[in-house]
Structures are given as structure tokens and as C-alpha cells.
Amino acid sequence: MSSTMPAGAGTLLKQRSLIFFLLSRSLSRFSSQVGAVAIGWQIYDLTGSAFDLGMVGLVQFLPTALLVFVAGHAADRYERKRVLQLCQLVEALTALFLAWGSWAGWLTELHIFLATAVLGTAGAFESPATAALLPLVTAQGSLQRATALSSGAAQVATIAGPALGGFAYAVSPGLPYGTMVVFWLLGMIFAGAIRLLQPQTPKDIAPRDSATPDDLFAGVRFIRSNSAILGTISLDLFAVLFGGVTALLPIYAHDILQTGPLGLGILRAAPAVGALLMTAILARRSIERRVGMRMFQSVIVFGVATTVFAVSYWMWLSVLALAILGAADTVSVVIRFSLVQLATPDEMRGRVGAVNFLFINASNQLGQFESGVTAALFGVMPAAVIGGVATVAIALLWMKLFPTLRNVEKLE
């Protein structure tokens, strides 16, 4: 394994292009997490409806589902950092709209849903471009540790973002959106400063005259042909689809744990704290063996932690369960991203990344919708318990359905 990762974390952090990439990605994540707290709390404050909270996830997911193939093709066809900058500009303008409406007092549930759809559209293009950009700003043989650093940088933002979002919303509903504007604009500036170590040359970019169906669906064909990758991203899809409790956090904070917006920010930050600690471990100690089994084990831990959170009435136990959940999820993220990127040619990374992003968004955002619907039907706690148990069951089932993934020994 050492031959594939000659650069340590300290050496990687001396590379200016990677630093600019990490700053840009972290600021985008920071804004997204601030927005998640503000939008979730504002929707629940306006409607008091668990179903409407779930609808936020569905509204944000639909653009991804509709534009996944176009977004992936754009990441391979156009200069990736310019795609990233354009997306961040659109996101900043959307946050400005939300800030203006909140401060002026005319923002309604419909306005928030429309803005959420725009943010989902920008995110659909931003994510595959960002994922395909990382290997081009990373020294050869260092992708695993660069992935861990990228995940860690995003998790730092994920820790601070929800806490700041909750605090800012307590001061004024428009303040978190104003913060999002500033951070997305800064992220756009840092993205423009990136210089590629491995330039995206014209031969790596899809022809500009037309996009054939073969071009658009190449990512799907590639994933279908690789059972380990198919098993990895589908496991993430179904496990998080049923096990995600993010959409229910405003209800847990408000009704069960009886805390306010700041408490909601702490709950949302807890998974990121666990993820950051796990990232620090993975940046120093790579996953050396039994990679596939480690992934399944992490998903099982994710499901158990979800179940513990579901039945907890104590803030400390809820935060601990969410932190363990986040640590387990990080193992899955690093394995999944490394498998996909190392096995994919650069000229296809945007399209494969778009499909992967669709699966991730389906698990996260459709998971919010599923959580909202089941909570409305069965109650909040039963819905969360069902999700945690289903996650464990899915991990055990996938171990039998995808033996190739289960038997993956190393990430090369």
C-alpha cells in the first residue's frame, strides 16, 4: 500500500492547488450545512409539518434525478473548475434571495421550496465537477489520503456550519442566508485560483459538437460492468435511504429533546464530529486489508447507532449516537470514493461521478422524504427505529448479493 501513497498528509497540505480545492469545497459545504439548518427550522416553524420537512429533501433531489446525465457530461465536456465557479455563483444568488425575503418578511413556504430546487439544480452540476477535479489536483499515488483530507475539510465545515446556522437563525432568520452568500462567493474565488497538476486537456474532454446517448449514459454502463462499484454505491443508496434521520432532527430538537435552534445545530454537527475523528485516523492509517468487509461493518454500525438515537430522550446520548453514526459513514465514503475514482478513466469521471452523486442524493434527500412520510404515518420514533433496523438488514443482504464487494481486499 505504501507504494500507492508516497505523500503523507503533511506533504499533501503543502500543495497549493489542493489547498485551494479544499477551501472551495469546504466553503460550499459550510454554506450547505448552514442552509440545511435554516431551511429545516424555518419550514417547520412556518408549517409545523413533518411531511413538509420531508418535502424539502424531495424538492432538492428532483433536479439531481432529472439532470444527472447532463451534469455528468458537462463535467467531462467543459473546464471543471469553471463549472464549479458558475454553480457557486448561482448558489450565492439564491441565498441572497432567501436572505432578502427573510429580512423583509415576505418569504413563504413556496419561496423556500423554489429556492431549494435551484440549490438542488446547482448542486447537481457542482458535485460531479468537484469529484472529477480532485484527482487532477492530487499527486499521483496519493488519492486515498487526499480523499480523506477532502472529507475531513468538508467535515470541519459540517461541524461549524450547523452550529453557526442555528445560532444565526436564533439572532435573525435572514442572518444564516447572508452568511451563505459570503461563503459561496469566497468558494468561487478559491476555485478560480486552482491550477491543475494534471491538466484536463482537449483529448480528455468529450467532443463539443454534440452529446450522443452513448456519451450521456457511459457512466451507467461503466458502473453496471463493475459489480464491486455497483454494490458499493447501491449499498449506500438503500442503507442511508432508510437509515437517515437528518430530516427528523428539527422534530427531535423541538419536541423530544426540547432544545432550540442552537440545540438543532449541535445535533446536526454531531455526525460531522465523529466523521472528522475518523478522517484523522484514515489520513494517517490507510485501510490495509479486508476493505469490502470493513465497509459492510461500518454500515451495520451506522444502523445500530441510528436505532440508539431513535429511542433516546437524553441529549448526550443522542449526540454520541450521531457522532458514531458519522464515523461509520466516513469509512464508507472513503472506500466508495476511492474505488470509483481509481477505477475510472479521467475522461469519464464526470459522468461516473454524476451517477454516484445521484445515488448519494437519492439516499440523503429521498431519505429525508421517506423519513418525513413514515414519521407522519407511524410517528417520529417508530419511523427512526424502522430505518435503523432496515439499514442493518440491507447490509447483511448486500453481503450475500455482492460477494465481489465483500471480498475486496485492498484499495489500490
Ranges with pLDDT <50 over ≥5 residues? 1-6, 201-210
User: What's the CATH superfamily, by name?
Assistant: MFS general substrate transporter like domains
Q: What is the total tally of β strands?
A: 0
Radius of gyration: 20 Å
Task: Report how far the terminal alpha carbons are from each other.
Answer: 7 Å
What is the count of structural domains?
Answer: 1
Number of helices: 17
Briefly, what CATH class? Mainly Alpha
Order of helices and strands: HHHHHHHHHHHHHHHHH
CATH-defined fold name: Growth Hormone, Chain: A
What structural class results from the helix and strand content?
Answer: mainly alpha
The CATH architecture designation is: Up-down Bundle
What proportion strand? under 5%
> pLDDT average, as an integer?
80
Estimate the helix proportion, in percent. Answer: over 70%
Largest sheet: none
Description:
This protein is mainly α and 412 residues long. Helices cover 79% and strands 0% of the residues. It has a single domain (7-203, 214-406), classed as Growth Hormone, Chain: A (Up-down Bundle), CATH 1.20.1250. The protein has 17 helices and no strands.
